[in-house]
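USER:
I wish I could look at a protein chain and see how it folds. I am handing you a single protein, as its sequence and its fold in token form. As I understand it, each token names a local backbone shape. I hope you can help me see how the letters and the tokens relate. The protein I mean follows directly.
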Amino acid sequence: MNKIGLMLLGLAVLFCLTACSRDRAVVVLLPQPDGSTGKLVVSNLGGSQMLQEPNQATAIQSAKSAPKEPEILDEQKIQDIFGNTIKALPPAPIHFILYFKTGTTELSGDSRKLLGKILPAIVDHGSTDVSVVGHTDRVGPRKYNFHLGMERAILVQKFLLALGIDPRFFEVTSHGEDNPLIPTEDEVREPKNRRVEVVVR
């Protein structure tokens, strides 16, 4: 396969596939499971093209010929070219966000309901890799918030352990007030930052 320079743009994680047919490389940008699509630049010595729409594709004949004008591939065409590759891909991670009341390890009402959906996701996914990360807003000292984030993460882990999930499957940590969903000034209450993120891989 000819060498292709790929540059990832945007905040979204991009899902792209590359296939070869004779001397030609085909690159297609697929949407993420939630339907969102990032951007992908395909470049070589001859030039570059940006892919930024779901199922948009470009082709390259050689290392010195510019990528072709992007076009949208229909689902059948994608299956014809990439079907075997798609089947071989691991399932996409499943993300859960659980919110907490300010300064506590008490889950909000909606998050208590969501908590019960994590176990089926782990079982259905056949997962042995579950990360649990605690977060806080910026109210209170940084050290206190780190420990509060950890307490929140451990609370969620204990709930899942009680349901029979193997403790070896978990990675539990705290980011405290770092890595907020909503950036704020210090001492600002922000409900969306008081959370635990669970990722089932």
